[in-house]
Amino acid sequence: MNDRFMCRIYGAMLYLYPADFRREYGQEMVQTFRDAYRDGSVHWLATIYDVSTTACAEHLVKMRDNMGWIKIAQSLVLFAAGIVGLLVSWLVLLIMVMAMTEIYLVPWDTAGNPPPLGTMARTVNDFFESEPGSLIPACLVILSSVGFFIAGLAQKRGSNIIRLAWLFGLSNMTGIGAMFVFSFGAVMLNRFLMPFPPGRGDPGFHRSILPAIICGVVMWVMLKIQKGFARSSDNSKPKGKLSMKRWFDIWAAILMLWLCSPVIAVMILLIKLDSQGSALFTQQRVGKGGRVFRLYKFRTMTTGENRQVTRIGRILRKISLDELPQLWNVLNGDMTIFGPRPGWIEAGASTGTLMETRPGLIWRY
Amino acid sequence: MARNEALTPAIYHILLALAGHERHGYGIMQEIARFTAGQMRIGPGTLYRSIKQMLAEGLIEEAGERPDPAMDDERRRYYRLTDFGQRVAQLETQRLARLVAVGQKLLGDVQ
Prior knowledge:
The structure holds two protein chains of two kinds.
Chain A: H1 3-13, H2 19-38, H3 44-66, H4 69-105, H5 119-129, H6 136-154, H7 160-193, H8 205-228, H9 244-274, E1 280-286, E2 292-298, H10 311-318, H11 326-332, E3 336-338, E4 343-344, H12 353-356, E5 360-362
Parallel strand pairs in A: 3-5
Antiparallel strand pairs in A: 1-2, 1-4
Helix pairs in contact in A: 1-2, 4-5, 4-6, 4-7, 4-9, 6-7, 6-8, 7-8, 7-9, 9-11
Chain B: H1 9-18, E1 23-24, H2 25-35, H3 44-57, E2 60-67, E3 75-81, H4 83-107
Antiparallel strand pairs in B: 1-3, 2-3
Helix pairs in contact in B: 1-2
């Protein structure tokens, strides 16, 4: 690998450090790393270890001074829960996609009968019906409620990485929750409305009642979360009462964030590697009632004096994926899914219909 | 920070590397690798974290910023020992020497 590429990776890794430390020593650290890499005195794996451990130490010292050990422990647990939840949800997503494609790749027979379940789908099906498998949803619900409890304690303040973990944890926990509500809905329909499959016998107590209990708990947790986001909803309604549109926005945004989380992670990595600067770009836009809010986008241009569209940026703009972070604006209540695009301040957008309605993510011009 | 603790190995090595010479970051890394015959290597992360801490504790100070003639013409920040740093390095060396003496007495001559 050439040293310029390695320096770029190293430079991106320095974002693990607090901003003031990075500003003061970042340049020198990259220079030092490049010299060491060129004469081969430090192995790059050792450097990765070095950067991550010292960055952790730096953060710990900063956090200890700012928040104290209890809050640190809370945020670490939260962060771990977020990462674990993310990995689990990606795995479940992968399994589901594999199982589903296997079903639909097999054609229906000429008599019009559906194809039998493939081996993959059957394995997945059997697993969720088995003794340990049926407990997984309950465990996930418990994990997610604990996660949200801690999230509430740890507040949304703190470093970016905690906020990101909170967001990831939230989106994938609720995503899993929603998924299991749907799948258990299907299971229950199957159990109570359809005749039992021949040879299976009685499904037993826990198979028939447990899903209902879990469904209830999941729904309760989901409603709790939803109330948390009701804050910036329609002003004319009391807190906690949502319009159908806002209700749709919240769940569409959470589900889309969850489904897109692998894409978002890859995007952040690519943008960081492609050019220097933050992966996100923020801009002041005009929202409902002329209120100014902060709009999030992926950064598509270089920072600094003469701005250019980056390589990744060109692709992102073409397929409009640079607007993906605006799902957070939707969740926040600044925007909605379908609505006119938010106006720029410079263009004097604070007039006309844009003031009366919430700006949206998708709009037909 | 002012606790009754031994110096970390990284800080002690940086103090030694700066004894009698002003050096920049990479120079410190090279010097440490040289006098320990490659046994102790410090990565850039550890180095700059230690440097920040040592600056705050007054063990070293910045000796200005200038290009390194041996490298490209990039500007490098140079560091040197303060009198306090010099004293701390001497005391730590004495402490370690006493420790080695005790070790040799108890274990027999390990040379």
